[in-house]
Every structure is written in structure tokens, then in C-alpha cells.
Amino acid sequence: MAGITDAEFLNKIIPYGFDAVTLGGYSLDEKTIEASEKIIQRGRKEFHFELDEVIPHIEKEVNLIKKNHPNVRVSANVRSTIPEPIIEASKIKDLDIIEINCHCRQEEIIAIGCGQEMLKRDDFSSYISEIVDNSESDVSVKIRANVDGVDTLKTAKIIEDAGADYLHLDAMDPTVFDADWKLLENVCKNTNIKVIGNNSIDSVEKIRKMYDCGVYGFSIARAVISGSLNFDISNF
Ligand SMILES: Cc1cc2nc3c(=O)[nH]c(=O)nc-3n(C[C@H](O)[C@H](O)[C@H](O)COP(=O)(O)O)c2cc1C
Questions:
Q1: What's the burial of 59, exposed, middle or buried (CB within 10 Å: 0-12/13-18/19+)?
Q2: Nearest CA to ligand 1 atom 12
Q3: Which ligand 1 atom is at minimum distance from the Cα of 170?
Q4: Looking at domain 7-225, which of 1.10.3720.10, 3.20.20.70, 3.10.129.10, 3.30.43.10 is its CATH number?
Q5: Has this prediction a pTM greater than 0.85?
Q6: Model pLDDT for residues 36-52, shown as the tens digit of each residue
Q7: 185 Cβ partners below 8 Å, 6+ apart?
Q8: Peptide bond before 25: cis, by omega within 30 degrees of 0?
Q9: What is the mean pLDDT of residues 124-129?
Q10: Contact 143, 119 (CB under 8 A)
Q11: Residue from 39, 78, 222, 226 to probe ligand 1 pocket by mutation (most atoms less than 8 Å from CB)
Q12: Interval 75-95: pLDDT, tens
């Protein structure tokens, strides 16, 4: 979560039983860094680093986690309008997963064709495959479900065909405060990619429901920052 999930934060929550954690999101190219500055100016939390600082910073953060938790997989969630900086970041030593952020819906990011707007780009498939073909880490693609004008299952298949290792799916249903379980199940049934199910997990029951949909794994965001993560996840 932008501006929140740094190494210090993640080191504190790993003992709840997480076997993988995500740093970021970080903006990696000139356009996304400029967009981040605008987001900060209007008062929203963001991680902000200059172009030549951001990758060394992520490397430092990865080390801070690995030093304490060598067996936990570390992912970095990143945004860039072009693939090259993401390929560069995938080379960070000890980084396990580079996660392409095709999920952010902040207007400054959407305005430059990044975040969830990536899903509408004509070059979406080639953008993902260029990263997959040149990455030195596993590649995860984080998307939001039910984006207006975007077929989520078709998008999942594009990501699978491009060769990504994981589809991190925020199964948001914009009409309710809950995941779109049907859509999640449909994506899991009709693809072979490892789906990390995300959205609204705040109990063991919800984790079970997610596995019933066929996910490979799950992720939790808001329940972690709100402190309502009061259940043991180590058995999943
Ligand atoms: C304050 C905040 C910042 C977030 N920043 C990011 C981000 O940088 N990258 C990303 O992929 N998702 C980001 N998200 C989305 C969460 O990772 C997650 O997909 C979403 O909150 C739904 O999961 P949850 O119901 O467990 O919170 C953010 C969410 C929040 C609340």
C-alpha cells in the first residue's frame, strides 16, 4: 500500500504468518514519479523517490526484510508507463517477485495511461510479455476486477498468455463492501495462472471462501493497516 508498506511495517506483520509480503507501490519512471508528486500535494500518502534513488531504496528495503526473515518471499509493487524501469527493478538482489501495478486508480496515474488504465492499452499484452521475457524475478500482475469497459476474465487470460507467474486479483465488487466471489471463481476455473485472491479479507471464514473459489493464495491489505488482523493465518 502506497506510503505505508515499507520494510519496517512489513517486518512487524510477518509474525502473523505471512510467507510473502509486498513493498510499495513505487513509481519508477519520470511520468509516474511526477504523478506521485501531484498525489502527495493533494494530501494522499505515497512513497516518493527521485529517478536515480528509487531502485537503490527498494534494494535497501528488501535487505531489511531478508535480514530478519530470510524465508519470506519479498515482492515489490511498481508502476511505470514503460517496461524498462520494471525490468531494471526485477534485477534487485534477493527480490523474489516484481509486481506490475495495473490496479492504481488515482486520477494522476490514470491520466498517464498507467495503473488500472494499463488494462485498456493496446500494448498491454506486449508490455507484460516484455517484462516477463526479461525479468530476473518472478512476475506478478496486480489488477482490479470490474473496471469499467474491461473484461476481467479476458484480461486474466492475456496475463496468463504473456507468461506472468502470478495474477494478483483485487476482486473488488464496486456495488458492495465484499469481494466479487463469482468473478473470482470464474477466473480461477478458466485460467491456469496462480491467482492470488484479494479483497475484503477480515476473517478466517473469508480466507476459506477464497480458497473455495480456487485461488492459489490470498492477500490482505486494509485489515492489516486497521489493526483488525486478529486471526491466525499461519495454517493456510
Ligand atoms: C491506503 C491504500 C494504499 C494502497 N496502495 C496500493 C498500491 O500502492 N499498490 C497496489 O497494488 N494496491 C494498493 N492498494 C490496494 C490494496 O493492496 C488492496 O488491493 C485493496 O485494499 C483490497 O484489499 P483489502 O480488502 O484486503 O484491503 C492500496 C490500498 C489502500 C487502502
A1: middle
A2: 1
A3: 19
A4: 3.20.20.70
A5: yes
A6: 999 999 999 999 999 99
A7: 212, 213, 214
A8: yes
A9: 98
A10: yes
A11: 222
A12: 999 999 999 999 999 999 999
CA distance 189 to 234: 26
Protein residue closest via CA to atom 13 of ligand 1: 1
Quick one: cell of 144? 482490479
Q: Edge to edge, what strands does the sheet with 166-170 contain?
A: 20-27, 73-79, 97-102, 138-144, 166-170, 194-198, 217-219
With CA atoms as reference, report the closest residue to 194 among 219, 220, 229, 223. 219
3-state SS class at 77: strand
User: What per-residue confidence (pLDDT) applies to 94?
Assistant: 98
The residue ranges of every structural domain in the chain are 7-225
Tell me: the pLDDT tens digits for 185-235? 999 999 999 999 999 999 999 999 999 999 999 999 999 988 777 778 887
